[in-house]
Design a protein that fits this description.
Layout lengths: L9 H23 L4 H40 L14 E5 L6 E5 L12 E10 L2 E6 L8 E3 L4 E9 L3 E7 L4 E6 L3 E5 H6 L3 E4 L22 E8 L2 E7 L5 E8 L1 E2 L2 E2 L1 E4 L3
Antiparallel strand pairs: 1-6, 1-9, 2-3, 3-4, 5-6, 6-7, 7-8, 10-16, 11-12, 12-13, 14-15
Helix pairs in contact: 1-2
Keywords: Membrane, Transmembrane, Transmembrane helix
């Protein structure tokens, strides 16, 4: 793994410290064996002071790295203000755990590529005889939908660039982070919703219509709404009864002012 310019990796720092300590110990033993008792005592005290200073410097370096990591994590994460509704975003992102066991979260400079950054945290997957399991996730991770026995993990996508995707990693708090576009399969809302089993209207003022127009005649049919066509902010749904017999079709407004007016069902 590469480290930012001017910073040594943890292994290099530890290795250098251990080598220096061993070298100092051997050198001290050789010198002490050839010195008088008084001089040996002075050298021993000096060696202890130098060792203490080295340990103090190493400890401070470690603390500085920890503070920098915490600051980076804090600056990366954004939250919804209390009382705000989370924006509908662009659609859904699916981590590609079929090809990659570890999927990373980043604090990117959006103009730089993924391989120029260090990850801040990750999701770790393991394949078993029964399918995939999530063996590690950050404590704040609460995705839009997870059902790994069906190989499903959905994260809401908020924005996208050539290399990066901003996703909501906690659907309750609205916390967002960034992931590599190469680690995800992004599906925008129209494509995603047309693959769903059904949708539910969650707005009492959002009536079914004969046409995709707010002033067209209302349709009074209840049942299971299956998406079959999307035209801008309108969705044509086929309406089925509980026996899955087709009752008719109608148009339903599925979003307005950046907010979803429907819930989706992946399964029957």
């Amino acid at each position: 793994m590469e480290y930012p310019s001017g910073l040594a990796g943890p292994g290099i720092v530890v290795g250098t410290g251990m080598f220096g300590a061993a070298f100092g110990l051997i050198t001290s033993l050789i010198i002490l064996s050839k010195c008088s008792a008084k001089r040996a005592m002075i050298l021993a005290v000096t060696a202890l002071i130098v060792s203490a200073l080295i340990l103090l410097l190493l400890w401070r370096a470690k603390q500085a790295r920890e503070e920098k990591r915490k600051d980076a994590q804090f600056s990366l994460i954004s939250y919804q203000k209390r009382g705000e509704t989370i924006s509908m975003g662009l659609g859904m992102a699916k981590p590609n755990f079929f090809e990659k066991n570890t999927i990373y979260f980043y604090q990117p400079q959006l103009k730089k590529s993924v391989n120029e950054h260090l990850p801040l945290d990750s999701l770790v997957f393991q394949r078993t005889e029964l399918g995939y399991t999530l063996t590690y996730a950050p404590p704040w991770f609460y995705p839009e939908y997870i059902k790994l026995d069906y190989d499903i993990l959905l994260i809401r996508c908020m924005s996208i660039t050539t290399d990066w995707v901003q996703v909501i990693v906690n659907k309750q708090t609205g916390k967002t982070m960034w992931m590599s576009v190469h680690d995800l399969n992004v599906e925008f809302w129209p494509s995603f919703l047309l693959k769903c089993h059904s949708v539910k209207n969650i707005s009492t003022n959002n009536q079914l219509r004969v046409k995709p127009l707010g002033n067209s005649a209302a349709v009074n049919l209840q049942g299971i709404y299956k998406p079959v066509e999307i035209n801008s902010d309108w969705m044509r749904v086929e309406i089925y009864n509980d026996g899955y017999q087709l009752l008719g079709d109608a148009w339903l407004r599925w979003y307005e002012n950046g907010e979803l007016l429907i819930n989706y069902e992946l399964f029957s």
